[in-house]
Amino acid sequence: MLKINQLSFSYATKPVLTDINFQLKAGNSYALIGASGSGKSTLLKLMYGLLDADSGTVFWNDEQILGPAYHLVPGMDFMKYLAQDFDLMPFVSVEENVGRFLSNFYLKEKRERINELLTLVGMNEFSKIKAKFLSGGQMQRTALAKVLALEPKVLLLDEPFSHIDYHQKTKLAQHVFAYCKEKGITVLYTSHTPEEILMFSDEVIVMKNGSIIEKKTPQNIYENPKNEYIARLTGEVNVIPANYMKNENDLLLRPDQLKVVDNGYEAEVLQVYYIGKNYLLKIRFKDLILFIESNKKHSGKIKFEMIKS
Ligand SMILES: Nc1ncnc2c1ncn2[C@@H]1O[C@H](COP(=O)(O)OP(=O)(O)OP(=O)(O)O)[C@@H](O)[C@H]1O
């Protein structure tokens, strides 16, 4: 179990993290999400011991993770951190980068391990290439293989797939998360991509202005977001103020929770976007602009209803 207790941190005099408390269960994956500047990267750096907290503690089971004031070399063997800048050695090959932390004592095993990892991240054919000649996506794959090499107990990944093109991203993420699940590795990863957040996490942790404001399953976060900020981090959402539909509270509805029907609220279609399989209609309802998913390309006047009340 990874335990964060009353953690606070400031850069010089600027408070960035305030009273952070949460626990991560061993073997689970957690998406850490929040608007740009909310403090996600800073939190990962603190958890890895790259920064000294103003107050509070980070524990992996009984072992405390401390910052540079206590360690000459940051980091612990059981934990690996993938930074947004990859931290590769530019003048050495992909395989040497991946094998950087592996012992030279058992060379055959080392070679096999490197091959296994390069297969996992789809980099076998580039094994002899120097890191400086790789594309951004290839560097990111290599860096992922490197942090997995010693089979850590905990992985902290800062936007681990941000440089991989859409077509290959899901496949790579599926491989990496399946591998971590199988090995019982606890993963905390940041992402701004709804699919990545929802598909691969057991729980989603939401940050806002340096605080944790929610920790729930992806399904809960998507289907019953507590507020608009949380809803928008995981996809498009319509905010319908309470008085518009005689509801007690404002409603947060996803575009697929509104439906075009023969009898319902009247609206006007302003734009139609093809989103693959379905269309996203931008509609005007009274003085609100809403988005509604439909399998038809409507225009002009339509009627709609809410699927969720
Ligand atoms: N080295 C630094 N010195 C001073 N302020 C910093 C430093 N690094 C980050 N900050 C500030 O701390 C706050 C949190 O930054 P952080 O990088 O942790 O956010 P983030 O949530 O990871 O953002 P993003 O999603 O854009 O990566 C921001 O206001 C940022 O400007």
From TrEMBL:
Domain of life, per lineage: Bacteria
Entry annotated with the keyword Nucleotide-binding: yes
ABC transporter domain location: 2-234
Gene3D superfamilies, A to Z: P-loop containing nucleotide triphosphate hydrolases
InterPro entries in alphabetical order: AAA+_ATPase (IPR003593), ABC_SmlMolc_Importer (IPR050093), ABC_transporter-like_ATP-bd (IPR003439), P-loop_NTPase (IPR027417)
Keyword Nucleotide-binding among UniProt keywords: yes
Keywords: ATP-binding, Nucleotide-binding, Transport
SMART domains assigned: AAA
GO MF term set: ATP binding; ATP hydrolysis activity
Protein name: ABC-type Fe3+/spermidine/putrescine transport systems, ATPase components
